[in-house]
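Technical note accompanying the year-one report. For the benefit of new consortium partners, we illustrate the data format agreed upon in the data management plan: each record pairs a sequence with a structure-token string. No post-processing was applied to the example shown here.
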Amino acid sequence: MSIQYEPPLADSFGVADSFPKDFGYGEEEEEGDIEDNPTPSDSKPRILLMGLRRSGKSSIQKVVFHKMSPNETLFLESTNKIYKDDISSSSFVNFQIWDFPGQVDFFDPTFDYEMIFRGTGALIFVIDAQDDYVEALGRLHLTVSRAYRVNPEINFEVFIHKVDGLSDDHKIETQRDIHQRANDDLADASLEKLHLSFYLTSIYDHSIFEAFSKVVQKLLPQLPTLENLLNIFISNSGIEKAFLFDVVSKIYIATDSSPVDMQSYELCCDMIDVVIDVSCIYGLKEDGTGSAYDKESMAIIRLNNTTVLYLKEVTKFLALVCILREESFERKGLIDYNFHCFRKAIHEVFEVGVSTSRTSTQPAGTPLMKTVALNGTPRSTV
């Protein structure tokens, strides 16, 4: 495997200078008790992490969004308060995570569940697959039924967690059993319209990043436009698969319409780690200043099976990672030109969303973008 760095095209980054200064991560906020922060930002989607004690909620949050090593999570203390964490990766990954302690009592009169569920975009319920999950299923049913009656627009996600300790057959059987029992409980309560999505997850592999990617994508009104742009880009460039990654969390906020192969996703995640690690060593200035990822970031990795991985910077915190064959990469000039058009279109989608959100009084969740062709020409509004 070889890594090759090349200078960018002369005009590849002409749009970047027009980007708002506040694009990307802001100052990291300290986690705090909600009682100390009673007025969260209503402009950001809210993701709730719920489940029984020691099910792995805090570990998931730390590994995905704070780059904590999975082994370090063994020393995390059990959560005993509701914590809020602002995630502001980019214009597309911009939300709050509320981590709930396992002992939350929905029938406690001091618990204002209506206020919490009313502003929620997704509710993730974590079930420990290595434990007896009968009690967890009871709490799952109580939680989602109460939340659904307050806000039927919530996306309900179930993470069947800690599956790294189970055999493949046991994983499938556990998922089937939990899926069957959970939906039977909903049917008995006449809640057939409530849809649950199930994911097998572990913090020791890429499954937790894959699952969180699917959750976050449901909260992005720009998703159809991004997928359309990726489809146009790969079809005109001879690329087999492309992911639009948030570099910091390794969540992919969009991909093309072809099925996602877990091995391909892991390859792309590993490439991001390699690029950032090498840039931290060799890409900074002699005095230590600079950034490990900037508008000149680009890398090519050639595998020994005639596959090429190609990474290009899209925005300050977004990267396009492509998988293609060596014979397709011989047309690198065409690929770079198409990427330049793709990158310009992504910037236009962002700029339209920002300018519209500042002046619009539309309800939350309304798509705030226009569709653009690969060359940046505006099309009809989505």
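Partners are asked to follow this layout when depositing records. The chain has nine helices and 13 strands.
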